Amino acid sequence: MSLRNKPYLWFILPGFILYSLFVIYPIFSAAQLSLFHSNGFGDKAFVGLDNYVELFSNPELKHQFLNALKHNLFLVVLNVGLLIPIQLYFAYIIYTKVKGYRFFQTMIFAPQFITTSVIVFLASLIFDQNIGIFNNLLSEIGLGEYTRNWLGVPGYEMITLFVINAWTGVGFSMIYFVAAMKMLSDEVMEASYLDGAGYWRRFFSVIIPQIRSSIVNIAVISYIASMTLFDFSYLLGGVSGGIDNKMDVMTLFFYRITFGTNGAMGGTVSSNSVGMGTTIACVMFAIIFIVALIQLRLSYRKEEQ
Fold this sequence. Notes:
Keywords: Cell membrane, Membrane, Transmembrane, Transmembrane helix, Transport. By secondary structure, the protein is mainly α. The protein is built from 13 helices and two strands. Helices cover 70% and strands 1% of the residues. A two-stranded antiparallel ribbon has the order 1-2.
């Protein structure tokens, strides 16, 4: 094969080189490091698959890993099963141009311009037990017995994390859905009007089937985002993921094992911090990649049929 006969390859080559350098090479490098006993400094010893065996046989590591994975899967269920329908409805409101839809669109998308740390700070100003205005409101209306630290209600830690994360990200996918709806054929929409389809009938029978590909793509993105969430869990629960690891997630577990519990590059790390850390990273990559691939494969096969 000659590059001279296929000039388009010259356009692909720069992107392929950069992608190989910054994406493919780190993946293979991490996979290689996971086969060594190493803390990133000095000599390293080849141990084969021992790190993987230890991850799933050591009681403490196994408990932390499964606990973090359970929380990530909980976020996947809420983000895909609850947040996406809400985003679709918000997008439909904007698409149908209800009164005040421009203001509504701006308000929903506005959190995208606020950094995560500021969002957590704002949440503290509202829901914190001591300084939060929500407890003050409850006290003012005679419901003082219900005041509590809403950011750390036992048993509801992941709900709190989801609500704050959802408020931040609800506008992101909504914009994609609005764009997909605006690309629908005017003739089809006019035909549905003439056939007497009502507001909800048009939404469920006309719009949803036609933007199914966009919904599948957003579902996959939501899955990946839920499985790689780090910032909110770290800012709300610290490096340990809250009391008894109630807000722990897989990326935080990876961070804790690799960099220690006292802070990045300065914490207490084990003699195999990098070896075990890259092992966790590889397992995370495999879970995310394989499930996302299956999701896309099944969805597009159904669409082709």
